[in-house]
Every structure is written in structure tokens, then in C-alpha cells.
Records
---
Amino acid sequence: DIVMTQSPDSLAVSLGERATITCQSSQSLLYSSNNKNYLAWYQQRPGLPPKLLMYWASTRESGVPDRFSGGGTGTDFTLTISSLQAEDVALYYCQQYYSDPWTFGQGTKVEIK
Amino acid sequence: QVQLHQRGAGLLKPAKTLSLTCAVSDGSFSDYFWSWIRQSPGKGLEWIGDIVHRGSTNYNPSLKSRVTISIDTSKYEFYLKLKSVTAADTGTYYCARGKRLAEWSGDFIQYYFFGSDVWGQGTPVAVSS
């Protein structure tokens, strides 16, 4: 199985400041035939199911604010919140779908400083 | 906007079978994958498996011997059965819709999952004697 490792485990950022989460995979998620990275990001607010934020590492899901951006390629990826808002307090997960079983990172908790 | 609504028993004794149902509000089965995912404090998020409208399934090898996912398109529902449960199966179970990319590979169309965009509300499951 592909192991997904996120860092940090938790992050406290002031309102309006930038938050960056990293996700590393145990093998490359870049599929050479279509040049796509098989990685998604999710946000999970307390008591709710995860919500898809990003797929193909950097494509925003419909309705996701543009302060969220995804980057990286191969084995190293980032999710950035450019200007943290109160409603962004949540757990964030990366997920690889390069090879099954699809696997998730352990999660990063984002809080307000 | 499609909604997924889960139902099923959330308290089980060890060695019993967990049975959950996920109802899809618009019956849009043919264009997506239909998944079950669970979440526990110890293991985090874990993909259990998925099914497509024709009934083909794909399971997590770690659970494959105990899992059955099935679908009834006439009822707009898909199902999870997990047999011989133990305390390690305690957690919140979600059904989810998986986005599907279709690409030609030679003479065949291959379908690729690329994220779960709609989720059920979750069913807390506790296994205890």
C-alpha cells in the first residue's frame, strides 16, 4: 500500500495569515501517460463528513474558495490556505488514488492562533 | 444536488455482521463509483471498497475476506456488509460518490477514480459485547 504522511499534525495560524500543509507519498503519484498527479485533498469540519477540496493535486472542486490551492508533483504535495478564515478550522487529509487500495494521510488539524 | 442517506444498525456484538444501506437521491449510478469509507481514531480514514452500476467491485485487501458491497439500481441504493466484526471495526462508516474519469486505452475505455465528492452523513458503529 502507498503510505501517505502529512506534516505537521497540527497548525495554528492567525486569521488572514497563510497556512501550508504538506503531504508526502511513499511512491510517486505522477502517472506519466497523462502527466496527472493522482492526489486529492479533503477538509473535515467537526461532526461532518470529509469534503472534497482538490483533485489531480491542484484542481479545485466546484465551489471551493480560491484561497485554497494545491501544488506539488511526484511524491511531495502541498495544500495552502492563502488567508485563513474562521470557517477553515478543520482537519485536512490528503488521499492518493494512484493505486488501490486508496489511502489517506493521518490528517492535519488547522486552528486559529 | 445529489444526496446520500445512510441507514443501518450502529451497535453490534462481536462476530456479527454489519449491514449498512446508502440511498442515492437521484439514482445517478452509471457515471460514478460508489464507495464505503470508514474512520476510526486508531486508523484514521480507511477506504473499504467500491462498486459501479454494473456491479463490479473493488475491495481493500485488508478487508476483502469479510466485505461485500452490492448495488440495487432499481431502489437507488447500495450496500455494505462486513462480517465477523470485532472491536477493531468500531468507527464511523461513510458512503460516498466517487468522481469518474473515462479514458480510451487502446480499444477499451478505462475508468479512473479521482476523488469522493458527495458523502453520506456517517453512521457511528460500535462493536461491543
---
Amino acid sequence: AQSVTQLDSHVSVSEGTPVLLRCNYSSSYSPSLFWYVQHPNKGLQLLLKYTSAATLVKGINGFEAEFKKSETSFHLTKPSAHMSDAAEYFCVVSLILTGGGNKLTFGTGTQLKVEL
Amino acid sequence: SQTIHQWPATLVQPVGSPLSLECTVEGTSNPNLYWYRQAAGRGLQLLFYSVGIGQISSEVPQNLSASRPQDRQFILSSKKLLLSDSGFYLCAWRGQGGKSQHFGDGTRLSIL
């Protein structure tokens, strides 16, 4: 079985300050992990992915995440928040299904608010 | 480049009416295709996935069905909608050998 836990349902930061969105995972196998962002009434956009290569993963829009096996964590960070970063963020773990395809298990999401 | 299209963007339907949501992918062949539902304030739930034409796997028992009549077309249907079918429906695709899924813009379905 696999799962992800997003530790904060809401995070509020000031523009220009660092962002930290926390995620812990549970997986029986070496996991593939992702962060997706969703703006209101929009689909999900892939921010970054970890697939057993470098443990520090850089994504789009200045985001990055570090895979820490010892802590079973995959926290998302950004050095300086921008107003356009306000959105919902999902931590996701992937499992390859028998017969093909992969199943994504989503966290419950973290709503990021950026204030002036 | 690959693109994914979902329509309609919003839909309001009465209880008991039928449903057909369509998703098409361009720029890739033999993709894996997925339908998700996102209830208000919650994460995404996988409803169906397909690894090829005519091949549909259902993840949860429900009032909905899916079909894949063509390689890059994925349809979500219902014969009679329930109030509990309201939500935001997202289609996604994954390329052969790819690790990540790519999502459409979604359909907001409201049942009255």
C-alpha cells in the first residue's frame, strides 16, 4: 500500500518570504513522487518529480523538493514566494499497476496563500 | 507537443439525466488514460484507467462507466446521474514509459 500525508491543509506566507509545504509518504517500493499545483477551476500542473535519480529535484517556477528516505519526506520549497504562487498543491506518490498504467495516490492538498 | 482537451468545461444536469464527458489527447500514440474525480475540498480519486483501446479498469464501484473507442479518446458516461456525482472531473494521460501524468483543465459537473 502507498499513501501520502500533507501535514498542513493551509499555509500562509508573505510575498518574498520562503515557502515550505510538507509531505510524508509511505510506500512498499521505491517510490516515484510528484508535486502538482492546481489553480482555481483548473486542472493539475506538474511542478516536479522524483524518480530515483538525484534526491534534490528542481521544478518549474523556482520550486524544488528534496527526497529524504530516512525521514520518508518530500517537502516542497521555494526561496521567495510570489503572489502568483497562491494555489492548491498536491503531493503524489505513484505505483505501477499490474498490466500497465500507474496509479497516483494524492495527498489531501495544501492551500497556499500569499499575502502582500 | 502533446495536448489534452476536455469538454465541456462546466455542465449542469438534472438528477436522473445521462452524462457524457469527453477527453482527447493529441501528439502521442497509445497513451495511458485516466479519469479522476475531485470532490470539494478533497484530493483526487481515480475512477478509471485505460492502457489501450477497449481496455478499461475501474478503481471504485459507482454509477459511472468509461469507454475508449479510439486510441486517444476517453469518455466518461452515466445512464442516470445521482446528486453524489457532482464534482470536478479530470482526465489525464501518461506516455508509454513515462512516470508522470498530465491533466486536462477539468469539467465542473453540478447535479440539480
---
Amino acid sequence: DQQVKQNSPSLSVQEGRISILNCDYTNSMFDYFLWYKKYPAEGPTFLISISSIKDKNEDGRFTVFLNKSAKHLSLHIVPSQPGDSAVYFCAVLYNTDKLIFGTGTRLQVFP
Amino acid sequence: GAGVSQTPSNKVTEKGKYVELRCDPISGHTALYWYRQSLGQGPEFLIYFQGTGAADDSGLPNDRFFAVRPEGSVSTLKIQRTERGDSAVYLCASSRDREETQYFGPGTRLLVL
């Protein structure tokens, strides 16, 4: 009963192009969503978040879109850079304390 | 400033042994969290401390797992009678307060043989 789903385990994108990572959730009561990025042998690093009162949040090359009716969010990275190669986790903040994570999507940006 | 630190970075133990994993949160952060990440999965919540008290321990898998934070700073996750299924990366995170951004440490990789 995975509450947060990332159905694409991996994604390969050419440098300079757009990367789109997707995430679906099951509970319509979830109201705060986050993306974390993880390099090997490091802990997850916070990237960007969005509240359910918004449908878009932008920070530099990173934009998160939220579609509440579809219970879907996506992370857009443009332009993609080789340093963006990492595992990206979608997460929801539940009960205002714990994070519930998806299984992650491995992004590879090639030259 | 310094981030969240965790020691040891790697721990190999034998089935049935006792292990302790330590977390030093960012100075001044009142909230501290433990997560466990198994291979191919995202991190899974174990326990959350607000100050010295465990505010939510609903993620601890069974009574072999216990965590403390006696002075409201450093926390120790304790696992008794380890089993091979306990092998995972144990992640600690801290935040200034509840609902604030959680910052993660590098994790402790536990291998139970």
C-alpha cells in the first residue's frame, strides 16, 4: 500500500534538455510535498517543496507542479546538467512530522 | 555551519548482536528524526523526537528497536538481537522545529551477517 509512488525507476536525459520526474500519491488529504535529491553515500538533500494551496513553485532551474485532482506532482529541471545526475525522491509531509517517501527515480544526464 | 553527522558510517555485526547508532543534529534544531532505507526503497520513517521526548515512534518495526535523546541534542538508535533483515542504511535528520525542512545526515550502513 505504497502511498507515494514513483513509477519510473530511471530516466536518462541529454545535457541541456528538460528532465521531468513524476510522482503520484493516494491520499487526497496530503497537503505538503517535497523533492529530495540523493547522491551515492550521502543523505537526501532538500530540493524544493510545494503546498497544496499552490499548483506551481519555481526555484531557479527547478519547478514543481501539483495537480491535486489527479493526485500527481512532477519536478521539471531545465536545462539539465551532468551534476543533476542523482536519485530523486518525492515525499509528502504527513501529520506535520514524518516524511513519506516514494521509491525514487535515478536520473542520468549525459553530455 | 556543520550539518547532521552520524557515526559510525559503516557497521558490520553478527546476527543476534546489539548495535548503537549515533546522530548529532544541527545545533539548535529541536526536532530529530530517524529513517531506514532498504535497498531499492525510499527512506521509511522510524521515530521523531521533539526535544528529549519521542513524539511519534509509530515507525519502529518492533520492540528490538529503541531510540533515546536524553539531553535534547544527540540521539542514539539501539537495536537488540539484530537480524539479517535489519541490514539497511539508517538515516538521521533534524529540523529547526516540527514542520520545518528536514536536513539529513549521510547515514549509517548496517550489515548484519
---
Amino acid sequence: GAVVSQHPSWVICKSGTSVKIECRSLDFQATTMFWYRQFPKQSLMLMATSNEGSKATYEQGVEKDKFLINHASLTLSTLTVTSAHPEDSSFYICSARDGPQETQYFGPGTRLLVL
Amino acid sequence: QKEVEQNSGPLSVPEGAIASLNCTYSDRVSQSFFWYRQYSGKSPELIMSIYSNGDKEDGRFTAQLNKASQYVSLLIRDSQPSDSATYLCAVNTQAGTALIFGKGTTLSVSS
């Protein structure tokens, strides 16, 4: 099956710093990738849709200036959490869509802790 | 508002039993349907996809789709403790958009 990787898997940072998370589709090209956030014992929350070569589409309530998304190639999308604060601590998961069947494959996730 | 509904559970079954997970969706034109499994602290993992009415079997898993009733289910035969997880139903309602996920059903299989 299709494989999606994320890096890093864990990150601890100080409040006010920026953190970049990479999402890669390893064995397929993904014109569209998605970024989710999940708090403990809560549902997946879609943050934004990332399309290769164009601006990301953010869900209502997600600050686009705080969560910068770049989808520079068909296999790489990045999420940068700018000026991170403790309330941004969460589990960030990307997914990539493979083909016309609209199947989404998830990366293993990045756990962010902001101190 | 396009919605996907699941019973949150927990659904508890003994080892070896059949677990039945259900999902309904609101958008009648939905075309693609998926079941994901999510272990605690991990990301979702695709189990099954189904696109046409009827049953689709893969090992111990069977997905069932009834578009007239807007209903999709997942049966797990010979349930094992390792099947204990949250199962997410996801529906694609429009090409090019993100899947719409249900909130998930927590399954607990006791040995």
C-alpha cells in the first residue's frame, strides 16, 4: 500500500519558537495532502487542504498566518507552526490522497509539545 | 452540513466473537467509503475501502454498503484483543475534497 512519512515524530520546543513538520508520500505522487490535528481523546480535526503548486485552503477557525503550509512538490508538504504556544501542543497528522478513488493514507503523526 | 455518524461506544465483545460497527452518512451523492483503525496514540490506518453496494471481504474484515439506506458497516470476524482500537468511518462526498470522518467507535475485545 501507499506509504506516507512524517518528520519529526516528536518535537519539544520553547514557547515563541517555530516548528516545521514535513510530510512525504514515499511511493506515489500526491497532488493533494491534508493536515489534521488531534487532541487527546478527541476526533481528528481537519486543519487545511494542501494542493501542490497553489495556496492551501484552511478550515474555518484555523489561523493561516500561524499554520503555514507549503506544498512545493508532488511528494512533499510542510506545516510550520509559527510562534508556537502551549495551546498548540497536539498530535499533528498529515495524509496524502492517492489516485481517483480518493483514498487518503495517513502519516504516522508528529507529537508537538510546547513548553 | 454533511455528516458521518457513528456510535461512540465502547463496543465490547469477547474474543472470537463478531464485532459489528455501523456508520450512517447524510450526503446521498457520496461515492467512496472507508474504514480506518486508530490505536491509542497512533495515526489512522486504512482497513477497507468500498465503492459499490454489497459486501467486500478482506480476511477477517467485511465492509457492507447500502447506498439507498446511506449506511456502511464493518464486520470483524473472530475478534482478537489486538483489534481493540477506535474505528473511523470516512466518506468522500465530493471529488477533490477531504474525507469526512465520523467521530469513531471504540472497540474493546476481551480475552
